[in-house]
Write a structure and sequence with these properties.
Porin; about 10% helix; eight-stranded antiparallel β-barrel; mainly beta; 1 helix
Length: about 180
């Protein structure tokens, strides 16, 4: 009788182990650097997938930097995204907003390059902008190298010219764990 009970427990445990090994456990966390995209010129981001499947809902946030002429921006993109696809190859759709600190510097006309030549002007502050993206994501289910590319249009609301949309590509590389 003890041998039958032992054999039954062994078979049940083997079945549980086989079932667990058969299910592909996907990695939910990704850290990546992004060129252009929602964070500006360069950004470092963290993405978290939710649910029991790599497709579906996820959130991402990061910190980015962008400088144009005498204006510089530090950005914090916050986005919800949804993945469609299978086997580590996905269509990514996202929407959210970016919080940004913007600052303008006035340059000394003497063209000297010391730090004293750059003085903050009165034009600085916090602002928000809507974010969207559509692209391709290569994210292995079992973790490893992550790759993303697509479009993240820059949307400007209001102002003298109304709503403006600038097509803005992105390219990112990272690690899924």
């Amino acid at each position: 009788m003890h041998k039958i009970i032992f054999l039954f427990i062994a078979v049940v445990l083997m079945g549980i182990t086989t079932k667990t090994q058969g299910q592909e456990r996907f990695r939910k966390n990704t850290v990546y650097g992004e060129f252009l995209g929602t964070g500006g010129l360069l950004s470092l981001n963290y993405d978290r997938r939710f649910g029991d499947d790599p497709t579906g809902f996820g959130l991402r946030t990061g910190v980015g930097y962008f400088q144009w002429s005498s204006d510089r921006f530090v950005t914090i993109p916050i986005m919800a995204n949804w993945l469609f696809g299978a086997n580590g190859k996905y269509l990514e759709l996202g929407a959210g907003m970016s919080l940004a600190y913007a600052e303008t510097f006035q340059h000394n006309p003497n063209m000297e390059t010391s730090l004293e030549d750059f003085v903050p002007s009165s034009r600085f502050g916090l602002w928000q902008t809507p974010l969207f993206n559509i692209g391709y994501r290569r994210q292995p289910i079992d973790g490893g190298f992550n790759f993303r590319t697509g479009l993240a249009p820059i949307v400007s609301l209001g102002g003298r010219s109304g709503i403006q949309v600038l097509p803005w590509p992105y390219l990112s590389f990272g690690l899924t764990f």
